[in-house]
Amino acid sequence: MIGGQGLVKEVKGLACNWGTQSTHPLQPNIVVQLLKDNGFNKAAINWVQQNVSDYVSKHGVDIRYVAVGNEPFLKTYKDTYLQTTFPALQNIQAALIKAGLAKQVKVTVPLNADVYQTDSGLPSGGNFRPDIHDLMMSIIKFLSDSYSPLTINIYPFLSLNADPNFPKEYAYFNGSAAPVVDGSITYTNVFEANFDTLISALEKNGFPSLSVIVGEVGWPTDGDPSANAENAQRFNQGLINRISQGQGTPKRKTPPDVYLFSLIDEDNKSTQPGNFERHWGVFNYDGSIKYQLDMANGKSLVPAKGVRYLARQWCVMSPDASITDPNLANSISYACSYADCTSLGYGSSCGILDARNNASYAFNVYYQTMDQRKGSCSFNNLSVVTKLDPSQDTCRFEIMIDLRKHETASSLAGKIQTSTMGLILVLLLIIHGAF
């Protein structure tokens, strides 16, 4: 979690995930300032570190949680992590105790919402999946005994995306969908219903007061017909409003800490879940604003400062080239295999382009990803460099960050230590993290 001095008035309980799977990542001190300027007093960083205690004692980084893995019990993983997650959790806790950090740093496991289910279709019927029930009980008891929280990731967008019959309005906080009535409780949105399904599962198994953190929740802006700035703004503003008003859920009146997913787009993430996976950011890859949000007390989002770019030029399909050229398809395929073309999909921001502009987009995103290097706009004589911005309507032809004019992110902790004025850090560790 990240918090600092001199912040704008933040929304209490709202934090943000800071992802780093980008070909051209923003410099850490720019990201930290972006967080501060926008009132995010906490951030989760997906970062594997070899010596946590050193960064607590030597660098002054205030680490509050260490997370073991990320959604290790996803059904799509099958049994891959069933035997290793709990022992890893125990080992990390033992290392914290040995380092004298157990009171300051808590261990947790971020889980996907598919670890619990409800046979009745109602939150009150919540229980943990039968295939992992005993394992979940071991983990939850361990977390309870060590006064550590359970972390859950909730994605209403994925509920909508996975089920063509899912009521769209139920995905939002101010939707007009028919409510779900569960005894004396009425649910008007899937976030509350999902969270309370977990709470019911905890109550049913003897842990009614275990602390819960929402580790990831958000809405993407591209890569799918339902992923756009309008929908993302609607969802995230509703989320911020309920947190700023101190609104919990019917079963937990106090709102949990919530980590918005995510701060910045990541063009190097796996697209296995879908093309939208690279577009969860509230901000674009360069820290520019996608859409406005009221961050409480009339404060709006502000963009990143001090970002430097490559030359203002683009690689596009040559006006002398023909769309019937036999090399065109392979050239586009080559460009998109090394760069992010997810915005070209059906219903996406650049899905409006004709064949020529479609090729231009692919050529340019490759050219920018390759830092505009000599030879990176050579596609069998099908492309040329232009100074005229080819962007149109919703489709933005990017110019990448100039990494040569920024320090690299390789010494992340050092950058944090010198630029954050005592920030709080949530460190997300892969299974094999050490102290």
TrEMBL record:
Gene3D superfamilies: 1.20.58.1040, Glycosidases
Entry protein name: glucan endo-1,3-beta-D-glucosidase
InterPro entries attached to this UniProt entry: GH, Glyco_hydro_17, Glyco_hydro_17_plant, X8
Signal peptide feature range: none
The X8 domain, residue ranges: 313-397
Family: Belongs to the glycosyl hydrolase 17 family.
Enzyme Commission number: 3.2.1.39
Keyword Signal attached: yes
Domain of life: Eukaryota
Catalysed reaction, written as an equation: Hydrolysis of (1->3)-beta-D-glucosidic linkages in (1->3)-beta-D-glucans
GO MF: glucan endo-1,3-beta-D-glucosidase activity
Pfam families reported for this sequence: Glyco_hydro_17, X8
Gene Ontology annotations of biological process type: carbohydrate metabolic process
SMART domains: X8
Keywords per UniProt: Disulfide bond, Glycosidase, Hydrolase, Signal
Classification via PROSITE patterns: GLYCOSYL_HYDROL_F17
